[in-house]
Design a protein that fits this description.
With about 400 residues, this protein is of the alpha/beta class. It folds into 2 domains: about 140 residues, 2-Layer Sandwich (Nucleotidyltransferase, domain 5); about 180 residues, 2-Layer Sandwich (Nucleotidyltransferase, domain 5). Helices cover about 40% and strands about 20% of the residues. The protein is built from 14 helices and 14 strands. The strands form 2 sheets. Strands 5-4-3-2-1-6-8-7 form an 8-stranded mixed β-sheet, sandwiched between helices. A hairpin with an 8-residue loop joins β13 and β14. α1 crosses α3. The longest helix has 25 residues. The two termini are about 15 Å apart. Bound molecules: adenosine-5'-diphosphate.
Length: about 400
Amino acid sequence: MKVLVINCGSSSLKYQLIDMENEEVLAKGLCERIGIDGKLKHEATGKDKYLVNITLNDHNDAIKAVLDALLDSEHGVIRDMNEIDAVGHRVAHGGDHFDKSALITPNVKEYITKYIELAPLHNPANLTGIEVCEKLMPGVPMVAVFDTAFHQTMPEKAYLYAIPYKYYEKYKVRKYGFHGTSHMYVSQECAKLMNTPIENLKLITCHLGNGGSVTAVQNGVSIDTSMGFTPLDGIAMGTRSGSIDAAAVLYLMKKENLTTDEMDTILNKESGVYGLSGVSSDFRDIEDAEIEGNKRAEVALETFAYRVAKTVGEYVATMNGVDAIVFTAGLGENSGPTRQIICSYLGYLGIELNSYRNSVRGKAVEITTKQSKTKVFVIPTNEELVIARDTRNIVSGVE
Ligand code: ADP
């Protein structure tokens, strides 16, 4: 079975075509600048990279371009569209309705539409991706894989905010958590590396990319996570503030006479390490600036690492211990220095990093010494593979 995985953002679209016989990625790529001008990067396993500047007015154009690239005589990997057996879509918000992936039906689409209110930037793009695929690939079964689903196991005490209960009842204002597919994948991989059933483990997974979140995974399920009602909450991120006293937000709005949209932009797009450093939202640029002596870059990186370490500490407390900590995503997988600073706060867990292993990139590895009381791993995430597996299982009736 060949599964096409689609991850639709507002102006970008990532895709992979995976052969589920051996879980081999046949091709992958990215459409960028959808609605602006358009760019397609396509890479088929064992073939040259294929870069095209192509007009992408909307997601319809983008998905057509993806299918054309997959079918291309030189750069493609299939000869006929019928070779695509199923499509798996990443969907940001499944509210409290979806605790696992679902076969896409009109009813499922209604829920995704309903939750646009909760994820106004992501769910509309996800829905568009689904609808365009339905149009271009009629009859091909499709599955929605939700970023929130893995966190539906959180207990009430973790997901409720201490605000009047009626707002939870009326508007479902609560913590949902995101990056669920990634936290689930790396926690399961970690259990395999530890050769221990996940049901016997207390794990803390740190997904540190442009967006970032930390999750407490106890006995294989998420019991708490740092992102909240939206992906703004928790640790500081590339451009997002993470947790902040709500009263500080109100104060700034009054002082600067800001509308809610303006404040939203400040918190989501102008804050985080970008806002603190004034350099960039990309940690590589900030690390370079720090080396050149930029003080604000140093403060931004320190604040970031401090907050990740503090969140790890919270989850050690809530689980009453931890067996292993996992780093994943762009920064978590690639930045040894960041992992090292975070772990320097965790000496009370008996963590001892092996500096050689901490410099390894791009593969799953334990980065602590043999003596380390708590293990630390770097595990590359693979959300696309989880989406493809769920899609295969649901379409073939295994789940
Ligand atoms: P997202 O999927 O949230 O866009 P990624 O998981 O791809 O993010 O992570 C992207 C981020 O990872 C970049 O913004 C960059 O800051 C960081 N990153 C990637 N490689 C490195 C590296 N070698 N050193 C430091 N940071 C890195």
